[in-house]
Amino acid sequence: MLGLIPVLIALTIHSGVGAADPCAAIAGKKWISPQEARSCMFSFPIEEDIKDNIIQVVNKTLPFHTSVNYQILAPPPYDKYVHEDIAADLARIKETSYTSDFDFHIDLYRSFRRLNDGHCVILNLCYDSLYISYLPTPLVLLTAENGSQNVHVAPEAFTIASAEFPDQIDFWQDSLPGDLKGQLASLSGAKVLEINGQDPFILVNENAEITGGYQAFGTRQNSFFSSYSRGAKSWSYVMGNFAQQIHPLDDFVELTIQRINSSVVEQVTIPYRSRIGSTVRNFTDSASYRANMCTNVTGTNGFNVYDLGSVHAQQQAVPPVAYLEQQPMISRQDRKHPINVMLDATPLSDVDLPEELLPLPVALNESYSVAQFYLLNDNITGVLALGSFSAANFTAFMGSLLDGLQELKSLGATHLVVDVTNNGGGKCAFISKDLSSKFRLGYICIAHWLHRILIGPKNTTEPQAGLYTCTRAGSLAQEIVESINKGGDPEALLSYNPSQWRNSSNLPFSVQSHWLRPTVNLTINGHDDAFSPRLGAECQPFEMTPPEEGLFNPENIVIISNGRCGSSCSLFSITMSKHEGVKTVVVGGHKDTPQQYCGVVGGQSTHFAEIDTEIKSTYLKNHTLAPPDFKTNSVLGITWRLAFGIDNPEEPEEWQDHPADFNLPLTMDIVNKPSAIWEYTANMVFPSEVVTDEARTQAYLPYWAGV
Ligand SMILES: *[C@@H]1O[C@H](CO)[C@@H](O)[C@H](O)[C@H]1NC(C)=O
Ligand SMILES: *[C@@H]1O[C@H](CO)[C@@H](O)[C@H](O)[C@H]1NC(C)=O
Ligand SMILES: *[C@@H]1O[C@H](CO)[C@@H](O)[C@H](O)[C@H]1NC(C)=O
Ligand SMILES: *[C@@H]1O[C@H](CO)[C@@H](O)[C@H](O)[C@H]1NC(C)=O
Ligand SMILES: *[C@@H]1O[C@H](CO)[C@@H](O)[C@H](O)[C@H]1NC(C)=O
Ligand SMILES: *[C@@H]1O[C@H](CO)[C@@H](O)[C@H](O)[C@H]1NC(C)=O
Ligand SMILES: *[C@@H]1O[C@H](CO)[C@@H](O)[C@H](O)[C@H]1NC(C)=O
Ligand SMILES: *[C@@H]1O[C@H](CO)[C@@H](O)[C@H](O)[C@H]1NC(C)=O
Ligand SMILES: *[C@@H]1O[C@H](CO)[C@@H](O)[C@H](O)[C@H]1NC(C)=O
Ligand SMILES: *[C@@H]1O[C@H](CO)[C@@H](O)[C@H](O)[C@H]1NC(C)=O
Ligand SMILES: *[C@@H]1O[C@H](CO)[C@@H](O)[C@H](O)[C@H]1NC(C)=O
Ligand SMILES: *[C@@H]1O[C@H](CO)[C@@H](O)[C@H](O)[C@H]1NC(C)=O
Description:
Elements: H1 5-11, E1 31-32, H2 34-41, H3 48-61, H4 86-95, H5 101-113, E2 122-124, E3 131-134, E4 139-143, E5 149-153, H6 157-164, H7 169-175, E6 191-195, H8 200-211, H9 217-222, E7 227-230, E8 235-238, E9 244-245, E10 252-258, E11 266-271, E12 273-276, H10 286-293, H11 308-315, E13 371-375, E14 381-386, H12 394-410, E15 415-419, H13 444-455, E16 469-471, H14 475-488, E17 520-524, E18 527-531, E19 557-561, H15 568-579, E20 583-587, E21 603-607, H16 608-617, E22 634-643, E23 662-664, H17 674-685, H18 693-699
Helix pairs in contact: 4-5, 12-13, 13-15
Protein name: Tail specific protease domain-containing protein
Signal peptide: 1-19
Keywords: Signal
């Protein structure tokens, strides 16, 4: 994929005078070829004022992102993977001439992806996920009995493709060569020997270089493959980066395969097909495409919370960022809770997990939304499948976590598997300020709550069940706080209001205190930087009374995922692992690559519109350091608070190691089947007389085994 891009850009067709409008050609069509999508998307010429506007907004918002200077060169073990000087790249981009607006966006987007930070992302809804390219053959990485690993077409590939793409499946059937025509189903499970004539891991690793989102290389390799996630309403299937691409840049892929029960090696060429994204607004030609998709909308920029006219307008709209958060859509009411969530250009999966893969045990009645409880057939292992740390109703979510775990115990469960596969935390929002009620607990607090109720009251769970944090204390941030200190936020609606936060003794700041001072002055990668003093936790007392004792013994808890556990999910997993000794497992993954059980810790995330709201509400929009409004349909996410570590409390947790205790290989029988994976995990990780030591050694590979 990576290798194709320069070629594609070179081949870009620009509609000259008199040429047919390439956007009119695709208007109203659900499925098109990637080439048709590109002809439209690359046809918009660069407009210097638009380019300059985006660069200015980004450049002036980055001083609110905690990690800019760290990311120039991260400390080990991330030094090989995070070495992006985003300020230098912005300067480069400013000086670069682009043939089209989309070329400019791709360069900017890719530069941000190189941060490998799911919190700090630039998106332009004029291009990202407008036409998503699919293949009917998602891939998985399977381990054979002798320990050898191979890429395979997912065994469920045809079931998925025929259910999700009923209106395209014939196209793909007809595109297969010779005797394989119409035999797409027979590709399911096939061993993939080569992709585009090369070892499949060449492409896996190329994708890992550009996909971004997580610091660790193994975690980014894993994004190539398909997986599952628990959504608010149902179980979803995640296609993976191979079979689902947010930009229509590839036309086809060549697979060298060996089908199940066949000794013949075959070659197939499978075309990508691009489907119109669910957020696309109707257009008829280039002009209406630009007007409907590419300009700012309500929610793109911030507003003055003390100007009732703007407040009203904001309350009528769903902010664009809501579509991009890797979590279920949350209510306007609950959006004000501080969240730590990842942003992605890929919308949350709406592909259902097929019947044959759904968990077998019936979920307990205490299950709610993204939190589902199961008792395994051994009657002693309970499962909490947790797809996110946010759900529509915050109170109901907290209650469900407590009730579900207590119900598992009352049914006899003594062991617990917590499955956080593809749990991106929550995200980066609280756009709408609810003027009528006070700031309450946030989704970060769900992570604290779950830690506290599982473990019980201890010095690691009370009054702080998460991580200490700091925020960046740039000049403009300091002026915002000064303005609030002088009475600039009488209703305590702003995020820079000291009364929202607590000091390192976990006690609230007074509204007069300048909580960013005295600033902690650091030199990071040769750059002077300034942060607030250490901040404590504002989650406790919780809205609900936690039980007096921990619900499960930490030795009997295991947290499993595909490594793609970020943000609030990291806050939870790290405190459970490093403070309480809870075991962690990554399922799947290349056996020679160390697997991290989580990544992209952050502390609290936010995005441009929120920062802009702080600036506008304190009448600082005219300040020379204040970013202008976005003119485009853009979203910029940042990390606003950065968490301190546990092993080294003086440095950010973001850059500390999170090695999984176990790496469980996936096989044809269990891949993408949650309940089979839970049973397997329970058997391997919890010692019992049924599994002998010898069997255990043969059955799993600790992550270091292959090194
Ligand atoms: C970003 O802002 C800094 C500080 O104001 C300035 O020195 C730099 O030139 C700006 N970069 C770009 C690309 O505009
Ligand atoms: C391991 O098993 C696979 C299939 O079962 C086989 O193709 C491969 O050659 C074996 N590898 C080794 C090193 O024995
Ligand atoms: C492969 O062969 C085995 C044994 O004959 C059979 O049970 C299985 O159904 C076959 N699988 C496929 C996909 O043809
Ligand atoms: C978009 O077009 C479709 C099909 O023409 C139509 O059903 C739908 O109502 C239109 N949506 C909007 C928002 O105009
Ligand atoms: C769960 O709810 C269903 C449907 O409301 C009910 O039939 C069942 O008895 C409930 N189970 C338990 C254990 O309460
Ligand atoms: C688990 O409990 C069910 C219902 O009480 C029982 O039928 C089953 O035999 C038990 N399984 C085991 C492994 O004890
Ligand atoms: C949220 O859940 C709580 C507890 O179940 C309930 O009392 C409350 O009415 C719910 N709120 C909304 C807005 O549905
Ligand atoms: C908690 O208490 C233990 C034992 O008293 C001590 O070793 C540990 O450092 C304390 N941890 C924290 C986070 O205060
Ligand atoms: C936190 O605030 C309390 C109350 O204002 C104060 O007594 C305490 O010294 C502060 N702690 C720190 C570490 O600043
Ligand atoms: C950090 O630098 C600022 C200004 O450069 C200064 O006012 C502040 O006191 C310094 N902080 C500390 C802890 O020395
Ligand atoms: C910015 O400055 C202009 C001109 O001085 C003034 O009219 C405007 O009200 C100011 N805007 C804000 C948001 O303070
Ligand atoms: C969109 O950007 C323009 C500046 O080009 C600004 O005047 C307008 O207020 C913005 N609209 C919204 C909804 O943010």
